[in-house]
């Protein structure tokens, strides 16, 4: 038996659509696997009632198939589904690391990223790696056609999760198919700024690089109260604010010591829009961790 803690993640970070991702120190899923003749899945925890236990409909089923590693799998969800915090990716990442260890398949963490990404295709229709990469590797990740690169960034964050759901499929439908040259240049410049900020663990540069004129404005329209929450976080001292992944979670980059004030401001702004929400005072953290074997 192997048990793995796989962290929530924030993908895109505004300017890095389908490329950037960051592991969060909290929340996380805990995945336990045990050898079996056929695969069975049990899901408990937050939002478990909305997650299929049929291996064909669960992200970990594709991981089992890719690794040829049938198992009894228990997923204790700490990352709410349809949250914009990589819920399906955390389960897939945890299963990939656990099954690789259980069956001694010998894959490196980097080699497990595309395997776990196959699980993402089950829920979003696309085998993208911007969430599974940081959940497996930790830190800040950049995923391209040439593979995934990671850096151990140390940036404080606040993630505010409203009590509404936005599906990844719906959020992908609103992404514009074209962008102006001006918007493209602005996005590339901001993405470069954010990447440098991550390499330096500089919250000011990370926040400045989160701005995105193409994808974020369209996804923000799916989140009731987003504009007020965005402005409240900046007024409370956040260095940058954007939609986390597909949403509805909103992520703010912070300087050390002001996360509590920013979290309170974001919660108050959602409350004024009659939306219940939860705030995580978190940071960029490590990847999937083996807890027991």
Automatic annotation (TrEMBL):
Leading EC class: transferase
Binding site residues for ATP: 80-90
Keywords annotated in UniProt: Amino-acid biosynthesis, ATP-binding, Cytoplasm, Kinase, Nucleotide-binding, Threonine biosynthesis, Transferase
Reaction catalyzed: L-homoserine + ATP = O-phospho-L-homoserine + ADP + H(+)
GO terms, biological process: threonine biosynthetic process
Major localization listed first in the record, in broad terms: cytoplasm
SUPFAM superfamilies documented for this protein: GHMP Kinase, C-terminal domain, Ribosomal protein S5 domain 2-like
Localization in the cell: Cytoplasm
Biochemical pathway: Amino-acid biosynthesis; L-threonine biosynthesis; L-threonine from L-aspartate: step 4/5
Keyword Nucleotide-binding found: yes
Documented EC number(s): 2.7.1.39
MF term (GO), any: ATP binding
Protein name: Homoserine kinase
Organism listed in the record: Halorubrum cibi
């Amino acid at each position: 038996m192997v048990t793995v803690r796989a962290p929530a993640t924030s993908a895109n970070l505004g300017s890095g659509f389908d490329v950037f991702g960051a592991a969060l120190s909290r929340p996380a899923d805990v995945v336990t696997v045990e050898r079996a003749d056929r695969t069975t899945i049990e899901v408990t925890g937050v939002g478990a009632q909305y997650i299929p236990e049929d291996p064909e409909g669960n992200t970990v089923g594709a991981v089992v198939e890719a690794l040829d590693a049938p198992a009894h799998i228990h997923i204790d969800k700490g990352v709410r589904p349809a949250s914009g915090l990589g819920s399906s990716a955390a389960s897939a990442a945890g299963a990939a690391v656990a099954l690789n260890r259980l069956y001694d398949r010998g894959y490196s963490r980097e080699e497990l990223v595309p395997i776990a990404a196959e699980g993402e295709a089950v829920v979003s229709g696309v085998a993208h790696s911007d969430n599974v990469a940081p959940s497996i590797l930790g830190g800040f990740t950049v995923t391209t056609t040439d593979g995934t690169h990671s850096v151990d960034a140390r940036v404080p964050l606040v993630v505010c999760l409203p009590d509404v759901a936005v599906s990844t499929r719906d959020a992908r439908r609103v992404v514009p198919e074209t962008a102006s040259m001006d918007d493209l240049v602005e996005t590339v410049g901001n993405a470069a700024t954010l990447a440098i900020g991550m390499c330096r663990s500089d919250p000011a540069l990370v926040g400045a690089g989160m701005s995105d004129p193409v994808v974020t404005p369209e996804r923000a329209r799916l989140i009731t109260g987003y504009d007020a929450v965005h402005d409240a976080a900046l007024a409370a001292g956040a260095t940058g604010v954007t939609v986390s992944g597909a949403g509805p979670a909103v992520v703010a980059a912070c300087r050390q010591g002001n996360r509590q004030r920013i979290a309170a401001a974001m919660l108050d702004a959602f409350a004024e829009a009659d939306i219940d929400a939860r705030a995580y005072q978190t940071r960029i953290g490590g990847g999937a961790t083996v807890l027991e074997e």
